[in-house]
Design a protein that fits this description.
The protein contains 24 helices and 18 strands. By secondary structure, it is α+β, with helices and mostly antiparallel strands. The strands form five sheets. The protein has a five-stranded antiparallel β-sheet, covered by helices on one side. It has a five-stranded parallel β-sheet with strand order 10-11-12-9-13, with helices on both faces. A hairpin with a 2-residue loop joins strand 1 and strand 2.
């Protein structure tokens, strides 16, 4: 146990505590913090951290900056005036707080110990009690030898990983379950087969029962042992596995043998980035009929799969979910947006308010709920934006937070970090797809295919087919229905899953390009509704006004007033 200020780093139980309360810290950020704490007082370069935590694996250095932001948030640290983690530009990081060794007994004084048989402290999550209880129910089935395959699905930022973290921390110690996690990485799925599977096997071999895991793998499926855990006679040239010696049947048999001695829980995160062979393994494990104390939990965005990068027409993840679901071989837990009440609870927790939601500044919960639409990641991003802009402040004596400025118009708030995340997601699409989404953002709510086609001067049928393809692949585009136009033709219309996506796409266009596209849509509206323009005058006026064509917008005022 290592202590610094009011924090305790419990290396035995892999958790961070503040004043004796367990904090929600995922495995990788915990590993980064542990390495810094264990090397406190000296410079730790980026290369040293990457080599120590991701040996023999190439990882973008950007991931360290992401983890540092997360750690500073949890520690309440300030990069400009660090109490814990100091950034040395272009060199690395230094842990600057004094670190003391503490015996386990010291933790008892803070109330962190628990009687044998009780569940460990569970990271606090908001609005997911039902889903967490369902996961725990599945874990209890393991003792009956009933294998469990569970997919946790939802849009980006909806809280899939937070739910998995809470489930893992809350596993009943009486199960004595062996747990390992594998992370699917975007871009890797198309080039390296079984990447998350090998991460899971490495964790099993390096874990408390690592000797037994290596022994079973060596006996049942030696081709799946990495060079780091294989015996010398089992190693292969160049540090690679021998593909000819790897079969799914062998690995399934090895995992089932491991799950015969004690429950085995495997976690695969971001399965939408997984390679097809990894999906085949999950399918094989789900279809095998023998009893096994095996539970596999996978998180994914069903409509954002690796096929978006590969350009393939098929979607193996969607087919896997449908096939296993129809055969009742899996359970899907779809995470909905948080309710207004849960958003208020999340804000209360993040702001450290102890007196309940009524003590939040008036209107804060409603404003953040409207802007985030219940997405937890967006809730935090909007809150951080308000804090950074000085709209929320807290007295130095630690009193209640106060609102210093009026809440901005909803359309005026796009947190920079969130906007950049969406930009990166959009930039992975083709140029034509980006232009299509930009044109779609010209409409306020739903965007019809004919309007997108008009803005881009393209064939409406081809545009509708392209929109259908995006709706199948992207989590933030949804087909919402079909309209009949005045000329008797029909056109599908779509909506953005979240308003912030529409706003970012709108702002990434130049003013001149936006104006030209707005005018094309307005003119197409006028042509479609010739003789009935009064019914669409308001919409036409909005497009002309957005294009800066106030003269034509003004001509429509009488018709707008008559509506």
């Amino acid at each position: 146990m290592k202590q610094f200020e009011n924090f305790s780093l419990d290396t035995a139980n892999q958790c961070l505590l503040r004043d004796g309360i367990t904090l929600n810290l995922p495995p990788k950020p915990f590993a980064v913090l542990r390495y810094l704490v264990e090397h406190a007082g000296r410079l730790v370069t980026q290369d040293e951290l990457l080599d120590a935590l991701w040996p023999e694996t190439y990882v973008q250095p950007q991931v360290l900056r992401t983890y540092m932001l997360e750690l500073r948030k949890i520690l309440g640290d300030d990069a400009a005036h660090p109490r814990f983690i100091q950034t040395l530009p272009k060199r690395g990081y230094r842990f600057v707080a004094a670190v003391n060794e503490a015996e386990a007994a010291a933790a008892n004084a803070h109330g962190t110990s628990r009687p044998a048989g009780n569940a460990p402290p569970t990271p606090a999550i908001v609005g997911r009690d039902q889903e967490l209880a369902l996961l725990q129910t599945h874990s209890r089935q393991l003792q009956n030898g009933q294998r469990q395959i569970v997919f946790i699905t939802g849009e980006a930022g909806i809280g899939k990983t937070a739910l998995v973290d809470a489930f893992c921390h809350g596993l009943n110690p009486d199960l004595h379950a062996n747990l390992a996690r594998g992370q699917c990485v975007q871009g890797v799925g198309g080039t390296e087969d079984y990447y998350p599977v090998m991460e899971v096997l490495s964790e099993l071999c390096a874990g408390p029962d690592g000797e037994a895991a290596c022994r079973v793998l060596a006996l049942r499926s030696p081709g799946w042992l990495t060079n780091g855990h294989a015996n010398p006679e089992q190693r292969f040239p160049g540090g690679q596995l021998a593909p000819s010696q790897r079969t799914l049947g062998d690995l399934c048999a090895a995992l089932e043998e491991l799950a015969a001695a004690r429950p085995l829980v495997l976690i695969f995160e971001d399965l939408h980035w997984a390679d097809a062979p990894t999906l085949h393994l999950i399918s094989a494990l789900a279809r095998r009929r023998g009893p096994a104390m095996l539970m596999l939990v996978a998180t994914c965005c069903p409509r954002r799969s690796v096929v978006a990068d590969s350009g393939a027409l098929d979607d193996p993840l969607r087919h896997l979910l449908q096939d296993l679901g129809l055969r009742r071989l899996c359970q899907e837990i779809a995470l909905p947006p948080l309710s207004r009440k849960s958003v208020a609870e999340l804000l209360t927790r993040e702001l450290g308010q102890e007196l309940g939601r009524d003590q939040l500044p008036a209107g804060l919960a409603d404003f953040v709920y409207r802007r985030s639409e219940g997405n937890p990641l967006f809730v935090i991003a909007v809150l951080e934006h308000l804090l950074a802009e000085g709209m929320l402040v807290r007295p130095a004596d630690g009193g209640l937070w106060r609102q210093l400025q009026p809440w901005p118009e909803v359309e005026a708030v796009v947190p920079h970090q969130l906007a950049r995340m969406i930009e990166l997601e959009v930039e992975r699409l083709t140029q034509d797809e980006q232009h299509l989404l930009e044109a779609a953002s010209l409409m306020q709510v739903a965007f019809p295919a004919w309007a997108v086609a008009a803005a881009l001067e393209l064939d409406p049928v081809e545009v509708e087919e392209a929109c259908d393809g995006l709706a199948r692949r992207l989590h933030f585009v949804v087909r919402a229905g079909q309209d009949e136009l005045p000329d008797g033709s029909r056109s599908a219309f779509y909506v953005f899953g979240h308003g912030i996506y529409r706003q970012v796409l709108y702002r990434r266009q130049s003013e001149a390009r936006r104006a030209r596209r707005h005018i094309r849509v307005a003119e197409r509206l006028g042509a479609l509704f010739a003789g009935r323009q009064a019914s669409v005058a308001r919409e036409m006026g909005m497009h002309y006004q957005a294009a800066g064509d106030t003269e034509r917008a003004a001509r429509l005022l009488p018709q707008m007033a008559a509506c």
